[in-house]
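Example record

The entry below shows one chain as it appears in the dataset: sequence first, then C-alpha cells.
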Amino acid sequence: MSATESRHKVSDLVDAFVGLRIEDPLRITVSDVDIDCHVHDIDRTNDRFTLLLETFSGDYLRVETQWARGWLDPQVDRLKPVAEERQPLGELQGIELT
C-alpha cells in the first residue's frame, strides 16, 4: 500500500469519528478482532481526537489520533482503571455504527 492510500484510509477512519455522539453503538476492528462497544466520551481538539469506548463486558478502550501534517494512524489502548495502566491493543482497522 502506498503512503497516499494509507493516509486516505486513516482519513476515512477519522472522518467516521466526526459524527459520533455519546452512547452511539459501534463495532471496531483492532488486530483483526471485532469488538462491539459504545461511545462513552469524546475529546476533540484541533490536533487530537480521542474516543473513550465501553465494551459490553465493561472494559474501556481509548482510540486516539493526532494531527501531524495529516492524521496519524488511530491507536487503540485497553484501559485498566484499577492499576491506572493501559494496554496497547494496536492500530484501529475499522469502525462502523451498529
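Notes for this example: Confidence is low (pLDDT under 50) at residues 1-8. The two ends are 28 Å apart (CA to CA).
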